[in-house]
Write a structure and sequence with these properties.
By secondary structure, the chain is an alpha+beta fold. It is 38% helix and 17% strand.
Amino acid sequence: MKPRKRKEALIVQELPEEMLVYDLERHKAFCLSRNIAWIWRHCTGQRTPGQIARALEAEIGAPVGEDVMGVALHRLSKAHLLREPIGPPSGARSSRRQLLRHAATLGGLTILAISAPTVGQAATCIPTGTCVNSHCADPPTRNHSALLTSAWALSPS
């Protein structure tokens, strides 16, 4: 198996310490830590997980086991950032706790997922008492359509 990253329907923004990826199909944003972003960038379909692990070892100067690489690839797969799904590592020689402790010493393998709000949810995010264009948001009511209508009235054209 040679993992390949998904490129379609993604917006990628590289930052100094992390990478932001927005999935246009699932309307989710992902914040990838430095090491998992490096792994994702190197999922070109040309290298095995072991080869990617050895390349990461050379990059960061610390050992990276194939078990840790398996966890990283599984997390990328669960986030739908790889073309083919990859299951959790099987037959791991380390416990989950040991794997996560080892991953933490490497700077973490964090993928933070954020769901984008729907238009209706985004429109109702105006706090009570906020005034826009001389119109103030109504106090909270049980009538959600009234809140939605006042939020749309507050949004600039």
